[in-house]
Structure formats: C-alpha cells, structure tokens
Amino acid sequence: MYNFVKASLKLFYRLFYKVTIVNGEKIENAKGVVISGNHLSNHDPLLFPAFFNKEIRFMAKEELFKIFFIKQTLKATGAIPIKRGTFDRTAINQSIKLLKEGEIVGIFPEGTRSHSKDLDLGESHNGASFIASRARTKIIPFAIIPNKNFRLFSRIKLVVGDEIDAYALKEEGKSHDEITEILMQRISDLIEKEK
C-alpha cells in the first residue's frame, strides 16, 4: 500500500507542480532523527513520500484519521495520530520508540497550518525538542516554500537545513523553549534564504 500511495503522490506532484528539493541528501542519509519544519497546507506531509526514498512518519492530528480518503493515505504513509492540545503520551512514546529503532519522525512545531502569505512562522510548541532529546537524537529543520500558495502548476521548493543536536543541547542545560527557539530560527533562516 505504501508503494502505491508513494507512486500516486509522485505522479500527482510531477504532473501538477514543479517541485524542487534542496539538500535532500541530508534526510536521505539520516537515521533515527526528527525532521521539523513550517506547516502551510495539507500538501506538506505528502511531499515527503513523493520525493524521498526514506519513509518518514509524520505526526498528524487525530481528526484527520476520521476522514476516509485522508485516513487511508495517512495510514499508508505510517502517520502517527496525535491529540492536539494535550500531552499525548501514546503518540510521544510511539515516536520515541520509532526513533530509537532508526525511523524518521516528522513534526510540525507550529502544530497547525500557518496562513501567512509572507511565510511568517506561527506560535511554536516544544514537541520536536522534547521527543528528540528523549530519544537522544537530532532534529533536521526544513522549509516548504510555495511561490503561489500551492495553486496548480506553481512551484514548490523544499529546503533541508543542517541538523540540530537536541540531545546534546539538553545535556548542556538548554531548556526545551531554547531548543525550539533555535529550531524556529533555523527554519526562518531557510525561508529567508530561499524564497
């Protein structure tokens, strides 16, 4: 099922969008890391199975698992349902377990989609920092940069940045707020550099 969904998404994005991946090898060569970036639309997690060979397990709000077609796509791509606005211990523990097994977990630190036309980042949450430091691993920031708000036949750029060693920063005494601030600044820098 995963390969079918992957092939379908790849065909869809190749036909209807011009997608460019910058520094994609930083994710392709990674193992057991969190990837984290800005969240603009329902397209965001779908770009990864379409254009990366690595399977990436994105956290997705559990409400999406109640919509039949989206539910099937999310399940096929291994998405992790999470209850928003709560400390969802089940989703957190599952993510940490996957990371320790060498899987890649995707987290949107804003928690919800941003509707800023200037790609300004919204309020951030500490999920990526908390999960990465508990799993003793790193965070790879990314930025999704559409030129016409995902309209058909528009361009989308997905830019991958340098890893942040969340575990090492936590061991040095950084708080989750401080690590999240570093992450959000890295995402913002990628957007400013590439848009």
Automatic annotation (TrEMBL):
Record's protein name: 1-acyl-sn-glycerol-3-phosphate acyltransferase
Record-level GO BP terms: phosphatidic acid biosynthetic process
E.C. number(s) listed in UniProt: 2.3.1.51
A Gene Ontology cellular-component term: membrane
SUPFAM superfamilies: Glycerol-3-phosphate (1)-acyltransferase (SSF69593)
NCBIfam families assigned: AGP_acyltrn
Organism: Gemella sanguinis
Entry domain remark: The HXXXXD motif is essential for acyltransferase activity and may constitute the binding site for the phosphate moiety of the glycerol-3-phosphate.
Keyword field: Acyltransferase, Lipid biosynthesis, Lipid metabolism, Phospholipid biosynthesis, Phospholipid metabolism, Transferase
Domain of life according to the entry: Bacteria
Alphabetized InterPro entries for the sequence: AGP_acyltrans (IPR004552), Plipid/glycerol_acylTrfase (IPR002123)
PANTHER family per record: 1-ACYL-SN-GLYCEROL-3-PHOSPHATE ACYLTRANSFERASE
Family classification: Belongs to the 1-acyl-sn-glycerol-3-phosphate acyltransferase family.
Reactions listed under catalytic activity: a 1-acyl-sn-glycero-3-phosphate + an acyl-CoA = a 1,2-diacyl-sn-glycero-3-phosphate + CoA
